[in-house]
User: Fold this.
Amino acid sequence: MTATASILVVDDNAAALKAMLRLLAREGYEVSGAATGQLALEMAREKRPSLVLMDVVLPDRSGPEVLAAMRAEPALDNIAVVLMSATKTGPDSQAAGLDAGAEGFIARPVGNEELLARVRLHLRQRDLTNSLRDSEARFHSLVDGLVDAVLVVDEAGNVRYANPAAETMFQRSVEQLLAMPFGIPLEAREGADSQVVLVPRGAAAPIVAEMSVARLSWDGKPALLASLRDISEQQQARDALRASEQRYRGMMENLPDLVYINRADRIVYVNSAGASMLRADSAEELLGRSPYELFHPDYHETMRARIARARTRPMVSPVTETRLVACDGSLIDVEVIASSYRSGEHMDIQVICRDVSARKRAEAERQELLEREQAARRQADEASHYYRSLFESAPGCYLVLTPDDYRIVAVSEAYLRATSTRREDIAGRGFFEVLAVDPTQGDAEGVRNMRASLERVKQTGRADVIPVQSFAVRRPDDQGGGFEDRFWSPVNSPVLGPDGRLAYIIHRIEDVTDYLDYRSEIGEADDARMLLRSRAEQMEADIILRSREIEETNRRLEASEAQLRMASRISRLGGWTMELPDGRMTWSDEVYEIHELSKDFIPSVDDGIRFFAPEHQEAMRKAFEACARDGIPYDMELLKITAKGRRVWVRTMGEAVRDDAGRIVRVQGAIQDITARKEAEARSEALQNRLAAMLERIGEGFIALDRDWRITYVNREAERMMHIERRTAVGRSFWDVFPDAVGTRFQQEYERAMRDDVAVSLVEYFAPLDLWADVRAYPSDEGLAIYFRDVSRERLLEEQARQSRRLESVGQLTGGVAHDFNNLLTVILGNAELLSEQLEAEPRLRPLAEMISGAAQRGAELTQSLLAFARRQALEPSAVDLNALVAGMYGLLHRTLGENIEIKFTPSVEVDRAMVDPAQLESALLNLCLNARDAMPDGGRLTIETGLRELDGDFANTNLDIVPGEYVMVAVSDTGTGIPQEHLSRVFEPFFTTKEKGKGTGLGLSMVYGFIKQSGGQLHIYSEPSEGTTLRMYLPQAPATEPLAAAPVAGRPMTGGGETILLVEDDDMVRRYAHNQLVDLGYEVLDAADGPEALEVLREREDVDLLFTDIVMPGGINGRQLAEAACLLNPDLRVLYTSGYTENAIVHHGRLDPGVQLLSKPYRRAELAERIRLALDRH
Amino acid sequence: MDDEYLLRLYIAGKTPRSDRAIAELEQLCVEELGGRYRVEVIDIKENPTAGKNAEILATPTVVKQLPLPVRRVIGDLSETEKVLIGLDLVPVRRN
Assistant:
């Protein structure tokens, strides 16, 4: 029952009230009573009972009236009321009572049991009602306060409930919503779109909402609850973010600069312009790479510092100049500006690189060309200045006129003098303007003649001589002023430009006034004129030549300018041009240098081609002709042979230049010496070849991966080791080629190497190829270089060495323990036996003594097993016929192994005799057979096989302590469950067992192992899970001279005949025990605690027949040494050794020295008796 | 053509979400209703009266007009099974 319910009983019958109160109180209810309706109301208010049992008829007001009053008060509304009546029990009365809100009606009389049952029922009902009301209230308080709109829809999809938030979101009242179908809300599958668009009433904008759906029960029927969260704002924010991101991305994409984003030293974004700047096939190719790969190593250090600084806080770094390394290895000079900003948990760095290499190159070249141009200009200036001064100071009177308008562009000093004019007065003015110097007297005919002569020059292109003219020339003021008549002989000569057209006209005058005066005196004027004329023509030719030179200089200047323009455009060194009309070529200085020609060489197209290597001339000629004829530009890398016979690689380019009409008038181009680059390429190729050759020659496997895990290189050793073919593996994903490596440590380590940029090494087993690989992986910019070696063999040897060492140390330990243990056991065992014999008459006590004896015996066996494992047991090897030994055990095995194991023995005829302790071998064989049986609980076949096996160096190499040679083998195979791989290496360890607790000691195989090893043989196990296990014992062969082991001798009297025995034993207890035993057996016994004491006794007594001595003793003399000393004193003395374990004192190479007799501790009385007798009887 | 099913899909504007709803409904009809259906897509942004008349509270809403009874579902249409159950449809299974 839950918490004690309280019940108010209302009855005016005091006796009935009391009886009911008592009954209910006894049931454990908290009760109170009232006799009137008024009192009942008051008590209900005060006590808040869970249930009111109320008589219908009360003295002041009726039960239903009281009930109605209670229901009117909210605080009392949840009290259950049950009406009782003895009289008004009819259905109408009951119905009236229930109508008034009563939970039930009890007709009196009512039995106690029924009353209690009804009380329990009503209380439970009330609890249920209350909890329902609570949960409804909880639902409302939860859901009504939610910001999310919540709708409950029934199975037909009609709205059954809507919370206030729904009113807001849908812009409809709850009543309106309840009148509408909503539909079945469909829950979005995980990860799918769970958004819906709400449609509010009226003009309100739709709302994006996230809908989640839950099942619930509503009014007892299954229903669905849809909760709708307004995410319009989030959506808008997300849309805005996406739009801004797209805008930003678009902007980045359209930038001509390289833009990338560095997140945690990986490129997570790069624009396509950047990809093409870096000569990458696509932007994707660069993603995930380290940004350091993009930059020249010289800048890495600065870069690291800058990145570290940028990661500390958002900042914009200043512009710096650095150098990029493109995917094809070319270098690009860039200006870098970077800014860092927080992006989630990362500090992203956005880097913008602007290619300034073209600018830098152009700057440098422009500078150079500028200097060259200036030099040329200076030269031209100097030349023109020189020629001008030459011209001006020439003795003749010259004027230089433009042919178009006869403007005076130059004038000689002599002319100025002859005409009494000043340079500044006439230079630049029209010739005829200057000629009309005397406006009052102008000689019209002279001027006309002059004009006609000039026109003739223009038409014919030849010099024209005008008859002597008279001119009135102004006389300078210092000579009296006015005009003076002079006679002139003018000659007009044309000056042709480089294009063959008339550039200038030179007007020369010869003042013949004095000559004419003279001539008229002597009458030889004609001859003199002839003379004059030839002289003048000579002068003209000079001048023409000089002007040509000036022209030529100017033309070169122009060509140089053209080259400058061209070179700036193509940005290459060494320009040349070829004028198509006359095929004249011009080379820049670099072209001369490349050809190793001096500047006075005048080049032609044929020369240009002739200097190419013979094998390249044809290609060059074709390309050039195509360019000159059809305007097809070319760009080739060809070999040139210089004038000095040197071979240089050049890049040669050419393009056609057209005039306004589209005709090709010129071919211009450039050549660049790229020998250094070619040589570097060749060197790099050679290096690569050398590297590849080296990788092929190293004895290790080598696989190179790129950063996308694609295999880029596989050497021969890797092909061999991993059984793959380079041809098919290269280009594929490493993980596709080695699917078994996925998820292994290999993967973890390689990924770590790649991710953290660290070298890793590991030694790991690779199951598919059954090998242990020693792997080192070095990350680089290109990816990962993986070197590996098959170390299976080393692992095996190492494992064996480790196992041997472990077994050796366990052996040391057990040997030491066994020694002390055997001493104790000797005493326990012997005394227990003695006790057992003494208690023959005491049937109650004797079994106790036998139990001690039995336990000690088991302890002794255990110790023996440990010693066997520790290779410390005393073996008595002899030549054993293996086939006979196995055959002899057949019956025993058959009995032991049971019916459901089939035993098969396949002896080999060639089997020779083995040198081994036969008793121990039998025990070992039995042990192996028992193991085999246990591995085949449901029966199977046991095969014993013998044979002769050559254990060669190979076997010996992987099995450390074996001498190569022929061995006799006994193999025991079963068809059992097999041994799991992970257990194989441990099965020889002592106390390692996979058998159930109590089923095995875990010493069986250890013992066999120790025995075989001690016998100089080898134990080998091979197991295949669920197929079976084979154990092979390899035993040394017996020398041919060794006699076969004799059959054990038995049935001789074991007691003493009064012989004297010297008992030497350092352990007090053991000595006392042995002493008693020997006395018991009828011998006379002398005791000694150590070697020196024993020798003392032997010196005194000559009648000692047998020395029975412990081997390991204190006192500086061990048993062996004692025996040797004793035999010197008494040559007839017989010796029997005893020991807890054998040491090298008497056991060498696993066998007792010949003639040595040993009784192993602990020993039974019978054994002691037998061995003492045997020793005494030995001759 | 003898249409056994008449389905109306109400969407709010041409958005990727609407396109997806249309595609998913078409696929469902092709795969589950054996071709005998008609789907009418009504955009209540273009035709608010239709939405008001059909008392659409949210989109995407699919209303199965025929066969009777009228049933409607709201939300993610990729879960074929749920849509079928919600609309009270019996899929035509081709064997």
Residues 567-572, 1046-1052 of chain A have pLDDT under 50 and may be disordered. The first strand of chain A starts at residue 6 and ends at 10. The longest helix of chain A spans residues 792-838. The CA atoms of residues 239 and 711 of chain A lie 42 Å apart.
